[in-house]
Design goal:
single chain, mainly beta, 4-stranded antiparallel β-sheet
């Protein structure tokens, strides 16, 4: 366990340019998407991606904009939204609404 006060780990991924393994976290109860960034020596920094991800469900990750960094995508069921969190420099994510259509939710 990395932290008892942060969402449970969901997946391991590479979120930064250092190519070490970071951890993606999700809490459906707290409506939080976050991650732990690994500094390469197994020291982790907690990063909040979205602390208002109401009804977060079915998250995944890939380099959606082909810039070399890992982005996060997910469905927010209570908002009927599909979103992408674009990974931008300095441990920040830019939330992009893809759809507010209930079809496919």
């Amino acid at each position: 366990m990395i932290s008892s006060s942060f969402p449970e780990p969901k997946s391991a991924l590479i979120i930064d340019f250092y190519k070490d393994i970071d951890i993606l976290t999700v809490s459906q109860n707290l409506d939080i998407i976050g991650c732990y960034e690994n500094d390469g020596s197994q020291n982790f920094t907690k990063i909040i991606v979205d602390n208002n991800a109401i009804g977060v469900h079915n998250i995944t990750f890939a380099d959606f904009n082909l810039d070399g960094s890992t982005d996060i995508a997910g469905a927010l069921f209570k908002r009927s939204a599909f979103v992408i969190y674009e990974n931008i420099p300095k441990r920040k994510f830019n939330k992009i609404n893809i759809s507010n259509d209930k079809i496919g939710m």
